[in-house]
Structures are given as C-alpha cells and as structure tokens.
Automatic annotation (TrEMBL):
Residues 163-274 form the Alcohol dehydrogenase-like C-terminal domain. Pfam families: ADH_N, ADH_zinc_N. It comes from the Bacteria. GO terms for molecular function: oxidoreductase activity. Keywords: Oxidoreductase. This is Sorbitol dehydrogenase. Residues 24-125 form the Alcohol dehydrogenase-like N-terminal domain. Signal peptide: none annotated. Transmembrane segments: none annotated.
Amino acid sequence: MKALVYDGPEQLGYREVAEAGPQGPDEVLVRVDTVGICGSDMHAYLGHDERRPAPLILGHEAAGLTADGRRVTVNPLVTCGTCEYCASRRENLCTTRQIISMPPREGAFAEAIAMPERNLVTVPDAYPLDKAALAEPLAVCWHAVRLAAPEGKTALVIGGGAIGVGAALALIAQGSTQVTLVEPNPARLAFLADQPFAAMTPDAVAGAFDIVIDAVGYDGTRASACERVKPGGIIVHVGLGSATGGLDIRRITLQEITFLGTYTYTAQDFRDTCAAMFDGRLGPLDWTETRALADGAAAFADLRAGRVAAPKLLLKP
C-alpha cells in the first residue's frame, strides 16, 4: 500500500510500504478515506518529538471504510481496558496506552490501518467522511471543555488552529455564554469570520474571562492565559507547544486560579463528540482544506511556512 512516511526532520516520502494488518483477534482493517494533519504531526516532522522516531507513518485523525463497507471514524487511542484508569472510564490515562502514529503502531497517513473494533464509531450514511475525520481533534476539545464545566461562563480561547476552533465550538455547545477566540494570523482570522464565536487579534481583546483555554501551549500563550483569567477562574491547558515557562504562579496562588492540564479524551468523550458532530451541535465544520496524500510533503512545507489559512488540513489517500 502507499503511505506518507516520516524519514527525518522535514523529510517525508510517499512510497510503497507493507500492507497494514490486524495486530490482534479483535482488530479490523480500515481503508482510510480522509486523515487530518495534527500539530503533533508537525512537531514530529520538525524533529521535536522523541516519541515519534523516523522512519514512521504519522497521522491519527482518520475516517474510512471497513472491509464490509461500514463507514467509520477512528478513535486512535488504544487502551488495555483493565487497569484502574480504564476501569474508572478514564482511558486516556491508561498506563499502557498506545496511539497510532507512535511506535509500535503506525499511523493513518496511509491507504489502510488496523484498529480494534471498539475504537470505531459508525458514521451515518449522509455524513461526509472528510468531516468525520475531525472527530479526533474535536474529541480533544470536547474533553477539555467538559472538564472546565463551561455552562453559564465566559471563555477565551488562545489559538485559531483546529484545537482552538474546536474548543470554541465545544464551549458554545456545552453552554458557555460568551466565547472569544484570539489568533494573530490575519489570513486565518479572515477564514474564521463567519464562525459563531468572536475571533480577533490578541491586542483587540478586553476584559477577563471565567475560563481561558490555551490551545497553543507556549510560554507566551501561558502568560496571556494567566493575565486574562478572572480571580477564581480556570486555565485549561491543551496545547503542547513547549514544556516550560509562562505561568504566573504567584497570581495563580493568590487569586485561587485553577490550572488544568488535559490530554486526549475518554472513550465516552469520543462517542459524545461524534454524536454532537452528527446532529449539528458543532456547526458545519467548514474550516478545512483538502489535498491528496501524495502531495503530503508539500502540505507540511506549506504549513511550516504559514501558507495555509484553514485551521485544519486534510489529506486523501
């Protein structure tokens, strides 16, 4: 089968690889229809993720068809199902969790992947598979927002990429009263002009917020989150841009601000996200751009150079 293979920093090759095959008796083959490029894929592409060594097939945001023709979207987080975290339905903290696009599991920048049956959610016939591929990043957002308990609260989202946009939409769907998103890139702001939240440059934001979601995760965005959150409010940290810096620990302590780190989603969060997508609660999800997987190297180069206005770039094998 054909796949887009990460061969080293800023090196991607589109070539023949071994056919994907089930790794266990409960696994099924999924022919990939659409796969999204995640920020973590970009980190690996730049050589910044030691968890993803070359050569490796990246990509974990996928939707496609099973051998019997079932349309599915893929929860890429494979967990043991028996540890204390899985037993308490916090599968994202499973001590032996695996995710496709990290060894030992190859990713979805390929014509096919093998997944446990329990990781597949059926997609309604009328729902486009290219939108169904957004379930994974949107589940990250749904999980983070659920933990923030946003009903009746104001919220600021830092970052206009897919996670930021998804977080803003999840905030609205889960009852936040006022949602503002900040993004410095004017092309991306223009792309987001018709969304149901206020999108603006960082210097245009006024006031403080009950909830601040950092969907970027660098020291500068963490500093902004500390500045913009109300006393007694909550900072929800989703982005994985850098590991340290930016937190005003004194203000967090003196004003009883909660800092919450979030990672991926539970299995129920993933299913709930799919339900919200399919019934329209997350909007038309029209903020993507699609290219061929064969052109994946150019797509990554364009993302690296800031030439992509859309928050999410999708690839088609």
